[in-house]
Amino acid sequence: MSRSYRRLIPAISAFLVIVLAVAAAGLPLYVFPATGNPKHADVVFVLGTPTRAKVQIAQELVSTGHADRILISVPRWGRWAAHNMTVCTAQLTYPVDCETPDPFTTQGEARMLRTYADDHSVTSAVIVTSVAHITRARLLMQRCFDGALYFRDDGVPRDLAYWIEQYAYQTGAFVKASFDSC
Hints:
- The protein has 182 residues and is an alpha/beta fold.
- It has a single domain (33-177), classed as Rossmann fold, CATH 3.40.50.
- 53% of the residues lie in helices and 16% in strands.
- The chain has helices at residues 3-31, 52-63, 78-89, 106-120, 134-144, 160-177, and strands at residues 41-46, 67-73, 96-99, 124-129, 148-153.
- Strands 3-2-1-4-5 form a five-stranded parallel sheet, with helices on both faces.
- Strand 1 (41-46), helix 2 and strand 2 form a beta-alpha-beta unit.
- It starts with a helix and ends in a 5-residue tail after the last helix.
- The relative contact order is 0.16.
């Protein structure tokens, strides 16, 4: 083994240790966040891009008596907006409110929940989002909403590329969130 390769071994080893430490530190934040199952909540709030999986969970929670109504955060643009117009306009046995937060961010959604709660006498909410988003969503929702919060992940299986992307994205978003208020 040449001398230059021997010099790389400590650097590569240090890099691998850092990667493993970051991965381990992120497990309780991104992979296994605290959730909770309420006996009952006033509203189920679907965050972010309102995927079919998230909307189905919200509908199941209402149909099984775990919540009274659904609030869906809907973007103004793109295929997600068009997809959710069906559930937003359907004649259901329970209320479904579709609103667009301003801005369309988790912080905007937290503010939207606060306003919605004031307007609809909401004191508890189940937040449905992707598993990697739960911890940061909790941080921001708690800043804006004084009621009881429960979290459900969308249950969608994830691949390694998703986890790598989310570790990077959510970590950066946590830094930003540390400077945000409600």
